[in-house]
Amino acid sequence: MYRGDSPCIEKEDEIATEYPLTIVLNGEEFATLVCTPTDLKDLAVGFLASEGVIRLPDEIISVSINEKRGFAYVETINKQPVSLEFYAKRFIGSCCGKSRQSFYFHNDVKTAKTITTRSQITVDQCFRLIELLQQQSFYFQTTGGVHNAALCSQDDIIVSRTDIGRHNTLDKIYGYWMFHRIPLKDKVIVFSGRISSEVLLKVAKIGVGMIVSKSAPTDLALDMADELGITIVGFVRGEKMNVYTHPERMIR
Fold first, then answer.
1. Which residue of 27, 48, 207, 213 sits 20 to 30 Å from the alpha carbon of 230, by its own alpha carbon?
2. Is 8 a catalytic residue?
3. Is 182 a member of any domain?
4. Is the pTM above the cut of 0.90?
5. Where's the active site on this chain (predicted)?
6. Does residue 238 have a known ligand-binding role?
7. What are the tens digits of pLDDT across the range 66-84?
8. What is the CATH number of the domain that holds 112?
9. CB 231 within 8 A of CB 211
10. 245 in a structural domain
11. In a domain, 180, yes or no
């Protein structure tokens, strides 16, 4: 559709798919995620790891996907029932006189890691990784309706994932890591969207010390990144970027 006297043109357009996936944990429904129907094993395992339900790959007995029905069946060694109430309650605590941990859920307290890596990255490498993510974002280019994330070395993308949900892209990355156990001390998460506190916590749970995005962070994400030892680089566009936290990891 065009303004004014320009003609209307009828044509087909590719639309992002919205797909409900119900995770069945040891025979009991645990959660339903709305997602893009790709890399579903990674998503199911990464989500459970992010929630603190599983901590190590050895805890997983089997994962199977019924794409037609929209179910992911996960069987783990621990058969004790999981309390959904536990995963929805806020944890009220303090840290060095601060109250930031009052924003964490119980499972966030268990699973968010403080990052101590001294690995560094150059400004040019950050620009390069954002460029690589954009080049690989074919589904975004055709639909404009998805987010992208990638686990990267300082020079290249190791694995990238796409989803309609920002958080799902990171759960897919986490699930991939659970299956492959790549060393993380020198790795970077490159991200297409806004860095919220929830996004930052997922990066901390994966165990990566830097997130680079073309978009902005929130104030709570910056507070948490400062506390958890994570470098946030935002607004990586053109020839500029903003380094918000732990700038000692950035070098020219």
1. 48
2. no
3. yes
4. no
5. 96 (cysteine persulfide intermediate)
6. yes
7. 999 999 999 999 877 665 5
8. 3.40.140.10
9. yes
10. yes
11. yes
